[in-house]
Design goal:
Radius of gyration: 22 Å
Number of helices: 5
Distance between the termini: 30 Å
Mean pLDDT: 89
Structural class: mainly alpha
Number of domains: 1
Strand content: under 5%
Largest sheet: none
Length: 187
Amino acid sequence: MKSRARGIIAAAGAVGSAVTAGVYILFSAKLMPDFRRMSDVSGILKMQQFNRDAVQPPFMICFFGGALAGVYLVASAFRGRRTRWDLVAATGGAFYLLGFGLTIAYNVPLNDQLAAVNAHDPSAAQLWHDYLNNWTNANSVRAVLSAIGAALLIAGAVGLIRGRGQDVDGKQHFVPAPRQRDLTGSR
């Protein structure tokens, strides 16, 4: 695939990563502190509603689209000789994928655990306080990973789209033209 097309994929991944990072930052900086000030019952009910509402096409397209772009860019970097911009984009994709993996492995199970809680049950209060601390800490980490990923994906996309690539050994990157077949029968 041409470097320009890889640059477009990196740009799409950057959009997904940036939107996802923005959502995570909003939660860590604004929403979770607001929930902490609410009564336990109100905070649990509000977070349960947010978790149900999050599974909507606009966010899911950004969330999974960024991951798909990341997988493609990381795999491309391992498949052959690539420019430094391919490596920058792949590193950005890897940062986003670390945050994506943290979400799947840690935040989603916490969300599932909270979804199963009856907010009015007295035992829910301790789970809620643990959730607030653990979920917010992990969310802050995935926000940073996604933001770094977005920045690197943007840099990689710009470099790839502008076509200013050099191989990591400093040589100018080029794709050799396909060999022409001699139709005359001579070699």
